[in-house]
């Protein structure tokens, strides 16, 4: 059954001098590749609700999480082509441009507070401009998909050497896999939907993902350790097609952009609340441990060199300048 949020009404419009008529609310689809457990779904709900407050009855937002309208790559293609109004995606945006690959760098941020400081200091505006320049889309909001952690069946991972010999299901490209290999892990290619069975059978010892991924797939039922490695932070991007935005009135277009920015704090807070909720529900099922972030940063510091050589360090300046000393 299609999962969607319906925010609808009828807009009263002036109709000449003789009377009025009710115009139908315009349908706006917001699709995502991740499930309704994700912070992306909560962000889309926030956006739809706030636009409805500002422009009551003018739009009917329908949310399609979980890849109902296609995988992330397909959603990106469709929003660029104007065949879907809006999408909320994550790492797929990084593939638009090597410079955006800054978010694939390991241990880029200390925590969510550091992310927010860096974004507010200018990183968000720089990223917005780059995505619009190379992506043929309009960026409505930049929020979060979250930090990625490691879950496994063998032992707590607290320092880099704890990964030695572990077979880890890793998503992402060769760069992320090489980072884990450098710390002694053996990357494994397993489809996300088969990871539960792979953990259960020992085909893999562990997996890395955002918290909601472990929760929705119930990996806590077969794994014994969740280590808060926070090795990669991925933002989320609420994107709209140029064709859709150009079809709106000036007022509507302005409201979409204003709301996209206005809900940023709420979006981060909603993401943090979801993560806390999932941790609370998993903590009795497995051990959750903190890690020595400094040790991991030192072990992977050389991985920044090739990025800086090819793409410069202008994005990294925002990160470094907002890190707590």
From TrEMBL:
Please provide an example of a Pfam family that matches this protein in its UniProt record. Answer: DctP
Identify the keywords attached in UniProt to this record, alphabetized: Periplasm, Signal, Transport
Record field: transmembrane: none
Q: Which Gene Ontology CC terms are recorded?
A: outer membrane-bounded periplasmic space
CDD domains tied to this protein: PBP2_TRAP_Siap_TeaA_like (cd13603)
Instruction: Report the locations given in the UniProt record.
Output: Periplasm
Which family is it part of? Answer: Belongs to the bacterial solute-binding protein 7 family.
Q: Indicate what this protein is called per its UniProt record.
A: C4-dicarboxylate transport system C4-dicarboxylate-binding protein
Give the source species.
Answer: Roseovarius nubinhibens (strain ATCC BAA-591 / DSM 15170 / ISM)
């Amino acid at each position: 059954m299609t999962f969607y949020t319906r925010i609808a009404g009828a807009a009263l419009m002036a109709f000449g001098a003789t009377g009025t008529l009710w115009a139908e609310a315009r349908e706006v689809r917001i699709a995502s590749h991740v499930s309704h457990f994700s912070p992306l779904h909560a962000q889309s709900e926030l956006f739809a609700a706030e636009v409805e407050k500002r422009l009551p009855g003018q739009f009917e937002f329908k949310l399609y999480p979980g890849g109902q309208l296609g995988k992330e790559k397909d959603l990106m293609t469709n929003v660029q082509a104007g065949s879907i109004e809006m999408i909320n995606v994550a790492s797929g945006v990084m593939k638009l441009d090597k410079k955006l690959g800054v978010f694939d760098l390991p241990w880029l941020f200390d925590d969510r507070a550091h992310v927010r400081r860096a974004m507010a200091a200018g990183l968000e505006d720089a990223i917005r401009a780059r995505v619009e320049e190379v992506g043929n889309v309009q960026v409505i909001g930049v929020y979060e998909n979250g930090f990625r952690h490691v879950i496994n069946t063998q032992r707590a991972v607290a320092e880099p050497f704890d990964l030695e010999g572990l077979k880890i299901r890793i998503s992402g490209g060769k760069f992320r896999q090489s980072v884990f290999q450098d710390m002694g892990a053996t990357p494994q290619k397993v489809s996300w939907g088969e990871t539960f069975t792979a953990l259960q059978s020992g085909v893999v010892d562990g997996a890395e993902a955002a918290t909601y991924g472990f929760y929705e797939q119930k990996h806590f039922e077969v794994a014994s350790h969740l280590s808060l490695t926070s090795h990669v932070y991925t933002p989320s991007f609420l994107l709209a097609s140029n064709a859709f935005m150009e079809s709106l009135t000036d007022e509507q277009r302005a409201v979409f952009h204003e709301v996209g920015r206005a809900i940023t704090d709420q979006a981060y807070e909603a993401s943090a609340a979801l993560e806390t909720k999932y941790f609370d529900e998993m903590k009795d099922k497995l051990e959750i441990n903190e890690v020595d972030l400094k040790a991991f940063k030192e072990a992977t510091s050389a991985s920044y060199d090739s990025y800086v050589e090819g793409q410069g360090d202008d994005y990294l300046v925002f990160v470094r300048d907002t890190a707590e000393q």
